[in-house]
Design a protein that fits this description.
Blueprint lengths: L22 H13 L11 E7 L6 E7 L5 E5 L3 E3 L5 H9 L6 E17 L11 E3 L9 E7 L3 E8 L9 H9 L5 H6 L9 E12 L10 E3 L5 E2 L7 H18 L6 H24 L16 H17 L1 H11 L11 H13 L1
Parallel strand pairs: 4-10
Antiparallel strand pairs: 1-2, 2-3, 5-8, 5-9, 6-7, 7-8, 9-11
Bound molecules: flavin-adenine dinucleotide.
The site of flavin-adenine dinucleotide has 17 residues, from strand 1 and helix 5.
Length: 355
Amino acid sequence: MERPGYDPFPQRDLGWSSYAVSRPTIERAVRRRVESRANTTLRQRCRVHEVLATPNGEAVTGVRYEKSNGASETITADLVVDASGRGAVTLALLQSIGQPLPEETTIGIDLGYAACIFDIPDDAATDWNGVMTLGQAPQNGRGGLMLPLEGNRWMATIGGRHGDVRPGDAEGFLTYARALRTPTIYNAIGHAKRLDGVARYGFPESVRRHFERLDVFPRGLLPIGDAICRFNPVYGQGMSVAALEACLLQRLLGRLGEDSDPIAALAPAFFAEVQTLIETPWSVAILDFAFPDTRGQRPADFETTLKFGIALTRLAAEDPAVHKLTAEVQNLLRPRSAYLEPALVQRVLAKMAEV
Ligand SMILES: Cc1cc2nc3c(=O)[nH]c(=O)nc-3n(C[C@H](O)[C@H](O)[C@H](O)COP(=O)(O)OP(=O)(O)OC[C@H]3O[C@@H](n4cnc5c(N)ncnc54)[C@H](O)[C@@H]3O)c2cc1C
C-alpha cells in the first residue's frame, strides 16, 4: 500500500486472506451456485422492459421482458427484486404511477480509468502480491492498482478524478503509469507481456438513493445493490455491499415469514436496515471530498472526519492491531462504528493534537 508519506505502508500479516480473481471468474462462480439451486430457473438473454403493477400502482404484479429473439413476454411475481444496477425499471415504475422518485445524495468525481492485463514475468518482485499507489490529495488524484488474477496474470488499473485523460492505448498506458507518484507499477509492467488491449471506463458520481425517505413504495418491489447505492469503484466495495444486501434480504425473508403480509413488510424493513450496511462504505466514498473539484454536498464535519482519518492512518502504521482494524473496516468485515471505541478515539485524538 503506497500512501503518500508511507512508501510503502508497513506490510503485515493481518491474519486473514483476501482473494484476487477476475470479475468473470467471480460471476461464473456465483452463477454456478445459483444454477445449482433446484428452485431457481434462469431465463437467459432477456431484458426487462417494465415492472408491472396493479392499476392503482399500490402493488407490483410481475415484469414484462423481451427475449433474445425480440418476443415480448410477461411473468407474474409476488416479489420483484431489481438488481439491474441502474435501477431504471424501478424509477420508471414510480414515475408511471405518479409516485415521487427517491432523493439522491451524489458525490461527483468524474473518475476516468483504464485497465490492462499482463503476464506476470518470471523475474517479478517477490516482496508484494498486489500494489496500490495513491496520489497526494488534494493536488494529485491519480492512482494505480495492480492485483494478481488467476492464470498468472496481473490486472493493472490506473486513473484519476475530475476529467483526467486516461490512456486508450498501450503506449499511453505505460506513460501514465510512469507518471504515478511512485515507480512500482511502471517498473513491474514496463517489460511485462501485455495480454489484452486497454479497457477504459468512466464513472461520473457515487449515488445514494434514499428509498428509506419515501412515504409509500409499491408492495412487492425491492431494488438492491447498485440500484440503491453506487460507490466510486476505486474503493472496490460495490460487490461486497451487494452480497451483504443479499444476506440481509435472506434474513428478512426468514424473519418476516410470520408477518401477516411479509411482502408488504419487506421493502420498508429492508430500506431501514440497509442504511447501517451502507454507512461504512459510503463514509469511504465521502473521502472524495478531499479533492476540491468534487461536486455535491460536502458533509458539515468533513474537515474533522478527514483529520481523524489521517491520524488513524498514522496510528495504523505504528500499531499492528489498529492496522488490522482499519483494514477490516475498509474490507467491510467490521462496521465503521468500531472506530468509536473510546480508548481508540482517545489515541486518535492524541495523534491529531501532535500535528
Ligand atoms: C469498472 C468497475 C470496477 C469495479 N470494481 C469493483 C471491485 O473491485 N470490487 C467491488 O466490490 N466492486 C467493484 N465495482 C462495483 C460493482 O461492480 C457493483 O457495485 C456491483 O456489480 C453491483 O451489483 P449489482 O448486482 O447491483 O449490479 P450489476 O453487477 O451492475 O448487475 C446488474 C445486471 O443487471 C443486468 N440488467 C440491467 N438492466 C437489465 C434489464 N432491464 N433486464 C435484465 N437485466 C438487466 C445487467 O446486464 C447486469 O448483468 C466496480 C464497478 C465498476 C463499474
